[in-house]
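Justification of computing resources. Each target in the renewal requires a structure prediction run like the one illustrated here; the chain below, 439 residues long, is used simply to show the kind of job we budget for.
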Amino acid sequence: MNNYEFYGIALENVFLFFVILAFSFLLHIVVFSRRVRSVLDPYFLPVVSSVFCFTVVGLLYFTSNISTYVFCNYLLTQFTFILGFCTFSRVKFTSGSQKSLTQPRNYLIAFYFFSIVYLISQISIYILKGIPLLMESRLETFASGGGTGVIGRISDVSSVFSLYSFFLVIKIDKLRISEFPKYIILVLIFLTFILSGSKSTFLLVLQVFWCFIFFSKLKGWAYLGFQELLRKNIKYLLILSLIVVTAIISIQSSNVEPDVENKLNPLLALMLRFVHSGDVYWYAYPNDVYLSIPSNQWFAALFNDTLGLLRIMDWGSLPEAVGITLKDIHHPSDIPQGPNARHNVFGLIYYGFFGSLIFSFFIGFVISFVRNLLPKLLPSTMLGGFLFTYLICKISAFDSDPMLTITYINNLFFIFPILYIMYLLVSECLNLIKIAHEN
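Resulting structure tokens:
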């Protein structure tokens, strides 16, 4: 089923669509409200996305466009995912004295180091490939190699650590001229997020801020000033987010040939983007189209990025991303784009009915571990905060796009150690120079 066929079904059954949407909304509140309490929580948007996915699948089933087999598989994989997601109990904070952060000079070096690395990598991408916001598909940025893949990995890792270290070094009690360079760098980073063309990437600034407060609160660091700052400005930040999202949608709509989606005003287009959270289901489930995708390379499909990065397999022999394959079946194009292969569809294709249940439970289990147990195990250091923030931000995509999440994990394991060692060397050299000057 292509996009326009689904739009027709939705318009013919508007009342049913909104009934299922309301039920899905209430169901997700019951399941997730105690575990996802902030709109800045990195897992908030995936929950909102899941609300619309449930609605799409329900509409397809109750209009007799998908079989009971795939509908039951969807429900059961969602159930086992939630079981995994609830494996570890939610983090509980204990009240106590707040400790001031130590080693401020090293934090400052970390901020400037990772910020410079990030901005240089982004400028390199713009020079080599162009600006993603102005492309028909952001995936074109890294589609043809040319070294931009590695630069993209460096950019991905350094962006999070730059933002996290910003909150370590910024002073919020009053505005100081000496703080201006830090704010200028933050604005530059924010602009690169907008130029990325992603409707959610720019929210990384707020999500990292939330992670910083969360980790500080857990480890007994001083956080009340930041929490109060966030509380006072949350409404303005959300309004700004809405403005930025609509602006991105407007710019992207002007880059492509006009169609039904691009004729909508930006706010309606934003709503349609939420509905498109479930596009992989109307591509894959009706007429059992998912069966047309070869399922024999299940390991290579999940660890596509790992096998290619380590040159264990040639990139050309690795399975194509499920979303791109499904999109090309219904909307053939030379542009590399497509929906996220959500865990239900990915698992059903590569692991079968019962295997997909185990796969979905595993994904929920991993997300639960990262959100609830990992922060307790990590040390109360800058590195501990780095790792927690990166993982909780990136692992939130595991149920919506398993392959992409494996890419993020590879970036952490293979790219971050190199960058961190470079930071330690730079930090040590600067400290030695400082000691030499003092003597």
